[in-house]
What does this fold into?
Amino acid sequence: MDYYSDQINRLVEELVSLPGIGSKSAQRLAFHILNMPKEQVERLSNTILEARTHVQYCNECFTLTDDALCPICKSNKRDHRTIMVVENSRDLAAYEKTGKYEGVYHVLHGAISPMLGIGPGDIRLKELLVRLQKDVEEVIIATNSSLEGETTAMYISKLIKPTGIKVTRIASGVPVGGDLEYIDEVTLLRALEGRREL
Ligand code: ZN
It folds into this structure.
């Protein structure tokens, strides 16, 4: 990219390091940004910086939020004895969009993947076990139906079984290898309603 100035190259390089942004998209975005009014660029960069500075993990469920506790964990309208385990905050959002789930969540921030060298210690599993020492009735495992998601589900169910807490897995209405966040709400609800005990 020698045909651009150093400044432009630096901007393109930063953008290309983002997921899903190839070299062409990065160049298009870079020129779009350079043509934006300066105030708008300022607003964008401040918003990114502020979000990165203030967003933190919920102390209870570990989703990303603005406070020590997320709105779901804070709410007394939710059933705190039912915990749905999801891989990331986007999956949590997908289930929240259905508006039908009344329990709380636990966000693992990943899934066990021996191939990628991600072990049980690399996701928020210890934190889940700590939560289970409180009054918990059911743990619904809603990890993706990918190999990693299934491995994680089996691992968690084996950990929880001895505690006597009910462990369920969402139904396989969710297509194999499908990311929860891309699945429509009806399918998500059907998967939740059809969950089976492990
Ligand atoms: Zn929370």
About this structure: The first helix runs from residue 6 to 16. The beta strands are 56-57, 64-65, 79-86, 103-107, 138-141, 166-169, 196-197.
